[in-house]
Amino acid sequence: MSDGNNSPLGVRGMILAAGLGTRLKPFTDQHPKALAIVNGKSLLQRNIEYLQQFGIKDVMVNVHHFAEQIIDAIKINNGWGSDITISDETNEVLETGGGLQKAKWFLAQEENFVLMNVDVLTNLPFNKMMEQHLQQKPLATLAVTNRETSRYFLFNKQNELCGWRNVQTGEEKIIRKEKDLIQKAFSGIHIINSKIFSLIQQEGKFSMVDVYLNLCKNHIIQSYDHSASKFIDVGKPESIAKAENMFV
Q1: Burial letters 49-73, b for 16+ CB under 10 A, else e
Q2: CA dist., res. 133 & res. 141, Å (int)
Q3: Are strands 12-16 and 112-117 parallel, antiparallel or unpaired?
């Protein structure tokens, strides 16, 4: 078994699995959302195997809600062939940004790394996304699609992040005031340059959305549109059935 340091993409990965998964109740009353099953495989297993397709086998998983169930599943299955490191957030769930900051010691060893939510499934061509990231050299590249959702990132015509919008509440945060901003739905998958750790100003519990909105004025945060690929947010019980139709 090769370890993650031999990854052809030269990156480590982190899967965010600490969330409470309240949308997936009643399953998450007794289990973590990471262990929700789609056609015989948990979301966590599917995403570990997804990253393996691109040679990414050195992966951190953060845990909070029913943490011991995730740790046991990883041990029993020998990490499904990957080298898994646990980031323990059992005392307090730190959200996406705080969870990333806690994992700095693991991720900052690589120039670029991948961060993804455990409750998304996709066949996004990650090698193409990484190719764009390495060519353009932004601070971060965010996977997006044209699907409908309630909250959007806003990009200019150069695919650079300029703001954020909640279409249900009407709330907007426009950081770079440019014409004809394009709204895109974020897929919960990021490629990030490790210099971000020296730029993050927040501490404790915080969201990566706030980090990106803080930084996009002076740093390039760009999008990678994968609308042509399969994607589903497996956040609700009814989305399990949809996911099973999409992913064998």
Answers
A1: ebbbebbbbbbbbbbbbbbeebeeb
A2: 6
A3: parallel
DSSP-assigned letters across all residues of 103-167 = THHHHTTSSEEEEEETTEEE---HHHHHHHHHHH--SEEEEEES---SEEEEE-TTSBEEEEEET
Beta strand residue intervals within 12-71, DSSP E: 12-16, 37-38, 41-42, 58-63
Tell the CATH superfamily of the 4-246 domain: Spore Coat Polysaccharide Biosynthesis Protein SpsA; Chain A (3.90.550.10)
Average pLDDT over residues 81-107: 97
Distance of CA 198 to the CA centre of its chain: 20
- Taken as a whole, the chain contains a residue count of 248
Give residue for tokens 């909250």: 151
Give the pLDDT band of residue 10 (cuts 50, 70, 90). Answer: low
pLDDT tens per residue, range 188-244: 999 999 999 999 999 999 999 999 999 999 999 999 999 999 999 998 899 999 999
Would you say 136 and 128 are in contact if contact means Cβ atoms under 8 Å apart? no
Helices (H), 66-109: 67-76, 95-102, 104-107
